[in-house]
Write a structure and sequence with these properties.
Helices cover 43% and strands 18% of the residues. It is α/β, with parallel strands linked by helices. The longest helix has 16 residues, at 177-192.
Length: 261
């Protein structure tokens, strides 16, 4: 699958378009220090089996205001999808993106055909808030190298860090003050998110994925999301952490199978 279009910006939201298939897929990324748009080529390679899909990768709005919520982010995504005349999309949300995906399916059901949620929850518990709060503190202190190392340790398994830890740290590159400000605003939005009273409004098929060693959203939280939404569920063992969406070699195969059911 090739990247068909360069990254674009519409209504202050950058996006990339991958592939030319007749089905529409939307990727909603997790919290990151840098825009995921710059990883579009790598994402295209990782989703090479999705030849029947045109994949849209949506970034965050430029100049996020203080108090910005993930509900608002879902509204921004909905506005962008409508501008692009997209509907009945197969939506994949990882971590924070999974929260945005829930919001999108709740408030804009006509846009979502199926929902694949990885390493996410309907709210942040005290352990999640403690971890994300520590990231925010480091971001506010502009202790970048420690922040990157701490995030990687919280997100990835020991095996992944042994193999790719140095590469993961180096791949971040330069992080601007604006990047850090956006990071803190979105981190706060994750901690404030709660869809527990709205989940019954999701009518599309859902698959929820989690891993036993997830430090950010515990497997208990992820199982609870699956139960509350009557979702199909795929749970990995202790070999993977929060970053199971990057670590598990068969995850995209399972995603494609769910989308094609």
């Amino acid at each position: 699958m090739n990247l068909c279009d360069d990254a674009k910006n519409l209504e202050n939201i950058s996006y990339a378009k991958i592939g030319n298939g007749p089905k529409i897929m939307v990727i909603l990324p997790g919290l990151a220090l840098k825009s995921t748009i710059r990883s579009a080529e790598a994402i295209a390679a990782n989703f090479s089996a999705f030849g029947e899909y045109t994949i849209y990768l949506f970034d965050d709005r430029d100049n996020l205001p203080k108090g910005y919520s993930l509900w608002k982010r879902a509204d921004d995504v909905a506005d962008l999808m409508q501008s692009l005349q997209l509907k009945d999309a197969y939506v994949y949300g990882a971590s924070m993106g999974g929260m945005v995906g829930q919001s999108l399916a709740i408030n804009h059901p006509e846009l979502v055909k199926k929902l694949f949620l990885a390493s996410t929850s309907f709210m942040s518990d005290k352990d999640t808030k403690k971890i994300i709060g520590s990231w925010m503190d480091l971001a506010s202190q502009e202790t970048l190298s420690k922040l990157i190392r701490t995030m990687n340790n919280d997100i990835y398994s020991k095996t992944t860090l042994e193999k790719f830890g140095e590469m993961l740290e180096q791949s971040i590159g330069t992080v601007s003050d604006e990047d850090l400000q956006k990071f803190v605003i979105l981190a706060k939005a994750i901690m404030a998110f709660d869809s527990s009273e709205e989940l019954e409004k999701i009518k599309c098929p859902i698959c929820v994925v989690g891993a036993e060693a997830d430090k950010v959203f515990s497997i208990k939280q992820i199982r609870s999301l699956a139960e509350k939404t009557s979702a199909e569920a795929l749970f990995y063992g202790l070999e993977y952490g929060h970053g199971v969406y990057d670590e598990a070699a068969d995850l995209r195969e399972n995603m494609l199978e769910f989308f094609e059911e």
